[in-house]
Structure formats: C-alpha cells, structure tokens
C-alpha cells in the first residue's frame, strides 16, 4: 500500500477525499447548523463584487459549481470534498517545492489529513474552508517564485500575485499569510530578489486582481463596518481569554497528528519530543515562516487591539504545521514508521466510515434538533403549496439564511434575498419590479409548539404597508425513514405575499 501511494500520492488524496465525502454524507443529513453554506449559496446567486461581510471568491466558485451540479446536500458536500482535495494537493505541491523528501511530504500529508480542520471541519464550506485550499497554493507559488532560477520564475511570480489576490478575495484574514511572506523577502539573504523583476511582477498582478474590489469597498461601507466590528470592545480579561485560546489552538485543532508524530517520529522524554517537533527546521527558514507566520501575526494583531480573536480563524493557519513538524523527525524513525503511518489508512478509512454511522446513530436516538431539522422537506412544502394554488410563480423569498435554505432546496427557481425586497443592501442588485411579484417571507422553523407570532405579524404588516395581499401558512413536518427513527415535528411558518 505504501509503495502505491509513494509513487502516486495524488491517488492517496483522491481515495481519502472520497471516503471523507461518504463519511460526511452518512453523518450529516443537513447543511451546517450555523447557516454558513446556505449563506454562500445565497451570495452565489449573482456575480456579487462584495457583501456586507466577506469578499466573494468562494460564492463565485459555488456559482460555477451549481451551473452544472444539482442543488442537493450530497452535491454541496461533494464541493467541500473537492475543496479538501485541492487543499491536500496544495500541501503536497508545497512540500515538493520546499525540496522536502517524498516520504517526508507523504507522511506530513497523511498526518495532516487527521487534523480536525481537514477531518471534521472542512465539510462546512465557508470562508475558512476556502482558505484551506488556496493558502497552500499561494505559498507554493511564493516558494517557486523565490527559488526558481530560470525563465519560469516570472510565471510563478505572476501566479503568486494571482493566488495572493484570490486569497484576499476569499477572506480578508488572508493578510496574515501574505504579510509574513512579504517580510521574508527583506531578510538579508533574500533582499537581492528586489533587484529582479520577480516581486514587481507579483505586485502588479496582485493589484490587478484586488484593485476592483478595493474600489468597490470604497464605495460600499458595509464590509468595512463589519471589519471594524471585529476589533470588538470586550474587557481586558475576555480579550486575554481569547488570546490564550488562540495560542493553544494548534493543540486542540491538530492533536491527533501531533500525538502520532510525537509517539512514532521522535524519541526521548515527553518534553524533548515536544521540543524536537517545535524547533525551527535547519536550513529552511521559509518553512518556519509558512508554519508560524500566520499564527504569530494573528496573535500580534490581537495583542495590539486590532482584532478580537475568533477561534475558527485558526482553521486555515496550520497548512504547513505537519511539513514543519516532520522536518524535525528523527530520520531513522521516519524511515521505519513513516510507511506504517501511510499503511494505517487501510484501517483509518474504515474507521472513518464506521465512526460516521455511530455518530449518525447517536444523533438519531438523542433527538438532535440539527440532525432532524427537515430543511429540504420544509422548502419543498412551502413552494409546492403555493404552486398548486396559484398561477403566478414565486419569485423571491426573504430573509437571510433561512430564505437561502428554501431557495437552495426549492423544486423551482426562486431567489433568496438578504432582506425584504424594498430594503436590499447596497451590495445587492435591486429588484425594481418586486411589487408585481409573488414572494415568501419565511419565519424561523423550530420544534412543534414554538411561537413565531411576532415574525408573522411583522410580515403581514409589511405586506399591508406596501399594498400587497398576504396569506399565513404554518407547515408541520417530521423527517421519516430508517435514518430518523424518532418522530420530531418541526414548524415552519411562512407568509406568502403577492400583488392585489
């Protein structure tokens, strides 16, 4: 098994991501509970230049995906699996660009696949997840641009400028990757690069990619306001708590690979093993910058008060952690145990699948609300109820992530709006003809017996204010089938509105 993957590591990535996709489909019958994936879909309905929160590279990719793929749970999780595969192939390419040994890179890739950002968190396709895939390739292009001594250096410089720009268009937080790389070029043994065309080509391409968005930001303050809010105004004690939590993030996001590396790839006492894995790799300062730069710069921004830390920001920072750690492995232990770690995936992959069945069973018999929430069934019921009674098609549904969920699962095309159509934000295209269209105002769906009277009353008042007819309907739906042994009914009130 090791011989097969050592000669074809991309095959390892493909098999792992396929098994991972099946694992996620078994364990999770719904989209993520935070609504991030529905939000990405909502943004993907148009080629938006920006939003009130994030830049739009991921929604652009999602839009392209759904031009050819169906809007289903399996499809969107397959997109997550593709994103994971791109991330792992990026780590593979980065390790090779850093001239690390083939065994080193494959073991680092395998251990990294067991870190939570790649194992259990990559399914939620949001702005952290897209950084998982684009950051390694951005780093790869930088390494190639600063190490190649041929005509291809200019190509890689342009690729770095492009990928750095796309990183910023994925999440503004990507600055913590780009700034350390920029600083690296000013080290004494790297400054010579500024006497070549390489950095100037990269900067020119980067500006060409990001300038349109920068100009858009200057004209739309929503995203800037959201970014300012990230600084927060929490008391010092709470800020210190978040900083301490982020400092330890590598330990609770990457415990499995660090434990395995400590047990099988270094020797000595517990403290000496930790010290060996953590030391700066010899003759590879750039690897240290890639592994530690984003983490340390994020902490610096928090200490000086520029941001209020959010632990999920640590999800993409560890793309080079395992390359860094395995660079410090004992060569003899790496040769002895490295192939065994790779071969262990013949057992790890079945464990992943069995674990997903266990997780789904536990959720099914514990009345887990997020597991039982009938997202697709509610959306289909709301749309088909209207379609069987009216000739006028539904054109829109509001507001927010709930509307996006209905639009995603709707059997007929319907646009999810971030707000009611009379108050759309500046970043979103206007709906000039909304008074002559039929739409849905959706109220939060909860377990049977919940009260949504305020939402319903506000929706009907909005319709009356704008001279529209309205009708309130509450759907009560429970999921059924072998995956859902308990009956857990959910209510979803909606208010249909249409012209008189």
UniProtKB/TrEMBL annotation:
InterPro entries: LipidA_mod_glycosyltrf_83 (IPR050297), RgtA/B/C-like (IPR038731)
Enzyme class: transferase
Ranges annotated as spanning the membrane: 9-27, 74-94, 101-119, 155-188, 200-219, 240-265, 285-306, 313-329, 341-365
Keyword Transferase in record: yes
Domain Glycosyltransferase RgtA/B/C/D-like: 53-216
GO annotation terms (biological process): lipopolysaccharide biosynthetic process
Compartments it resides in: Cell membrane
EC number: 2.4.-.-
GO MF assignments: pentosyltransferase activity
Membrane protein topology class: Multi-pass membrane protein
Protein name per UniProt: Glycosyltransferase family 39 protein
Record organism: Shinella sumterensis
């Amino acid at each position: 098994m090791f011989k097969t993957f050592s000669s074809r590591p991309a095959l390892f990535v493909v098999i792992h991501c396929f098994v991972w996709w099946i694992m996620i489909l078994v364990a999770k019958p719904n989209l993520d509970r935070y609504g991030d994936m529905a939000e990405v879909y909502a943004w993907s309905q148009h080629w938006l230049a920006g939003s009130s929160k994030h830049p739009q590279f991921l929604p652009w990719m999602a839009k392209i995906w759904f031009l050819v793929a169906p809007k289903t749970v399996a499809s969107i999780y397959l997109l997550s699996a593709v994103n994971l595969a791109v991330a792992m192939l990026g780590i593979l390419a980065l390790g090779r660009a850093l001239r690390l040994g083939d065994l080193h890179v494959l073991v680092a890739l395998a251990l990294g696949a067991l870190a939570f950002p790649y194992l259990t968190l990559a399914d939620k396709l949001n702005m952290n997840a897209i950084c998982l895939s684009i950051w390694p390739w951005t780093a790869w292009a930088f390494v190639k641009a600063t190490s190649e001594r041929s005509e291809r250096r200019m190509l890689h410089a342009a690729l770095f400028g492009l990928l750095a720009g796309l990183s910023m268009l994925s999440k503004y937080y990507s600055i913590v990757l780009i700034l350390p790389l920029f600083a690296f070029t000013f080290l004494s043994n790297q400054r010579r690069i500024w006497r070549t065309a390489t950095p100037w080509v990269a900067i020119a391409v980067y500006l060409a990619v990001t300038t349109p968005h920068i100009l858009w930001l200057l004209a739309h303050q929503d995203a800037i306001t959201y970014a300012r809010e990230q600084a927060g105004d929490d008391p010092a004690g709470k800020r210190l708590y978040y900083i301490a939590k982020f400092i330890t993030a590598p330990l609770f996001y990457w415990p499995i690979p660090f434990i395995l590396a400590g047990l099988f790839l270094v020797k000595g006492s517990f403290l000496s093993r930790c010290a060996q894995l953590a030391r700066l790799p010899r003759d590879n300062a750039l690897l240290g910058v890639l592994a530690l730069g984003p983490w340390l710069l994020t902490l610096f921004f928090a200490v000086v008060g520029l941001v209020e830390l959010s632990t999920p920001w640590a999800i993409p920072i560890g793309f080079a952690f395992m390359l860094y750690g395995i660079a410090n492995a004992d060569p003899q232990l790496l040769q002895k145990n490295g192939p065994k770690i790779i071969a262990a995936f013949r057992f790890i992959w079945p464990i992943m699948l069995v674990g997903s069945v266990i997780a789904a069973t536990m959720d099914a018999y514990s009345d887990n609300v997020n597991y039982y929430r009938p997202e697709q069934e509610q959306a289909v019921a709301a749309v088909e109820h209207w379609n069987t009674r009216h000739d006028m098609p539904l054109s829109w549904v509001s507001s927010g992530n709930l509307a996006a969920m209905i639009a995603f699962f709707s059997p007929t095309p319907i646009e999810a709006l971030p707000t009611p159509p009379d108050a759309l934000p500046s970043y979103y295209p206007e709906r000039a003809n909304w008074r002559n269209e039929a739409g849905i105002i959706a109220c939060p769906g909860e377990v049977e017996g919940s009260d949504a009277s305020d939402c319903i009353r506000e929706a009907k008042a909005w319709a009356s204010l704008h001279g529209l007819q309205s009708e309130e309907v509450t759907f009560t739906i429970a999921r059924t089938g072998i995956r859902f042994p308990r009956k857990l009914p959910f209510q979803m009130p909606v208010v249909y509105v249409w012209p008189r």
